[in-house]
Amino acid sequence: MSEEKPAGVDWQHAEQCSKVVCEAGELERSIDWKQGLAIAIGVPLLILPSIGYFASYLWSFAIIVWGLSVFQGFMQNLAYGELATTFPNASGLPGFAQNVFKSPNHEGKYDKGKLIGGFSAWSYWFAWNPVLAIFAILVGFYLHSLFPSLAASFSQYQLSLAAGIVIFGGLILVNYRGLSSGALVGYILAAFSLIPMAIIVLAPYATGDFSMANVTGTWLPTDWAWDVNHILILLGIFAMAQWSACAWETAAIYGPEYKNPGSDVPKALFSCGAICLVAYILVQMTVTGVIGIDGIAAAPIDPMLPVAQAALGDVGSTIAIVMLIAAMVLIIQTAYLGSSRAMHSMATEGNLPKVLAKTNAHGTPILAMVIIGVFNLILISMGTPSAILAASAIGYVCANGISLFAYVKAKSRPDLAGLERPFKAPAGWKNVALLFGLFNIPLCLVGIIYLNSVEGSWFSTIVGICVLGLYVPLWFYSQHEAHVDKIAAVGLVSSIEKK
Predict the structure, then answer these.
(1) Is the CB of residue 255 less than 8 Å from the CB of residue 91?
(2) So where are the chain's domains?
(3) Which of 158, 221, 222, 298 is the most exposed place for a label (fewest CB within 10 A)?
């Protein structure tokens, strides 16, 4: 895959010169940790697509899985927090892997290390990207269920598509002037996120609608056995659970946009994690305790609706659900900003076409946001959130596994081990990161593929593999493009020096 470098070319100088293309696409340092937290605080809403799905397989044991998954997030994010301060200009997981795996003194056209790091970034992009489609579908589903007049005039798909167009377009306009504008919207929508979620989840304890017997009497399905089949299903569930419960690492993706990344990243990261720990356990427990496993089975996509109706009545539940729908815009924004930064990061590293590295005058990668919006309007046609999530989880498992291996390499390689680390994970965390990296790849990866097969359809697996596989031709094109730019940049500098 490598080739001899042309005689007379100063490749190190060429690498520096070719980065002129990306300097115009630098992100702007404009937020502090509280603003980063405000953008990421919508992560607890990621539980919504999976409440019914998990209960169908695990019954009340789903509560335990959520708790363990958030714990897994803390274990992984301690490593990511350190990487974020080691590489303060890197955009979260996509940036970490690309910085660690690229060859420091590579000469030639193709860098296999960049292929690995870039694939991790692409996997992460695919993990966050479909959140837009999933929650647009949920918005359409809640609107369709809540308002009979809308249901009479429009199908659920039409409402979801319209919601996607309005929300995606609105967020592009809001974030056009930079991430600080998105943070302002985050502050506003955070209230709509936490208040309705808290009201719906806590009200049943005050009204007496919560029954602990619904939880303790249905810990696991009656036919559950700890055999290979069920363990593989459980690994697949864990793969889908971490897509939601570990996703607060997105607070680290804004590393290049924090004013003081050394302190801002850890504060934003672990504040969001503490909120998620409480939210994920409490939401699944409340839903199970109020409507039981049979009630969840009757409303697998929108189980929060019967919970709200039981505790608040028709009027109160309508108000709470409308607020919850507004809050879904927050998690769509979180995903939108995260996936667009992932594309920008890959393009600046030469792992995607350089046109995607361009930002507007306010440091916003608008073109990347437009492409992501169109892609998700297409994904909405898949119809069911769980099918999209299952495909997306394949990417998230790959991204986490490779990023954790990147942490191990960053602690082991002499030139990287000596880099300054304002925030450090506990001693020996390299071994913990390796353990969870192996849990992701191969265990969770095998689990999610097996779970898809149990569902009776390979469609999600095929979509996931095809999207991830699309990266390979894009990478070869991007590396060729970057190679041509290096040659042109050196030729320009040489001609100037001769004059």
Answers:
(1) yes
(2) 11-498
(3) 222
pLDDT digits (tens, 9 = 90+) for 105-146: 666 667 777 888 889 989 988 988 888 999 899 888 888 877
Summarised one tens digit per residue, pLDDT across range 243-255 is: 989 888 877 766 6
Query: Which of 2.30.110.10, 1.10.10.10, 3.40.1060.10, 1.20.1740.10 is the CATH number of 11-498?
Result: 1.20.1740.10
pLDDT (tens digit per residue) in 358-389 = 888 877 888 999 999 999 998 888 767 888 88
User: Of the given ranges (71-75, 171-175, 265-269, 456-460), which has the lowest mean pLDDT?
Assistant: 456-460
Buried b (16+ CB within 10 A) or exposed e, 390-408: bbbbbbbbbbbbbbbbbbb
Query: Are the C-beta atoms of residues 252 and 73 closer than 8 Å to each other?
Result: no
Q: Which of 304, 352, 321 is nearest to 114 (CA)?
A: 352
Q: In a 10 Å sphere around its CB, with 0-12 CB exposed, 13-18 middle and 19+ buried, how is residue 375 labelled?
A: middle
Q: Which residue has the tokens 């924090």?
A: 258
**Who's near 498: CB < 8 A, 6+ residues apart?**
none
- The answer to whether 351 touches 475, Cβ cutoff 8 Å, is yes
CA-nearest of 254, 251, 255 to 269 is 251
Burial class (CB in 10 A: 0-12, 13-18, 19+), 20: exposed
Whether the predicted pLDDT of 18 surpasses 60: no
Cβ pair 334, 42 in contact under 8 A = yes
**Dihedrals φ, ψ of 225, to 5°?**
-140, 145
